[in-house]
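Forgive a beginner's question, but might I ask you for the amino acids of a protein and the tokens describing how it folds?
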Amino acid sequence: MIKYIVRGTLLLALISLTGCASLSIEPWVKPYERQNLADPIMSASRHPIANMHVAHVLDAREAARGAESTEGGGCGCN
């Protein structure tokens, strides 16, 4: 009985690891398609200045920096 459990576990591990393998070596985004991804309409935020302000307010409120990929010291002062 234990032999079947070990074999089943190994088979499950093998199947889950092969799911991570890429079937093709080609990139998903072709070089000529990357210009579409660099379009401003594809950005996650519509108002980057407003988002910078919100990030600054959150940094000051939480007294921690670096969570929004901002640069600075570690003291939380501006």
User: Anything to note?
Assistant: DSSP finds three helices and no strands in the chain.
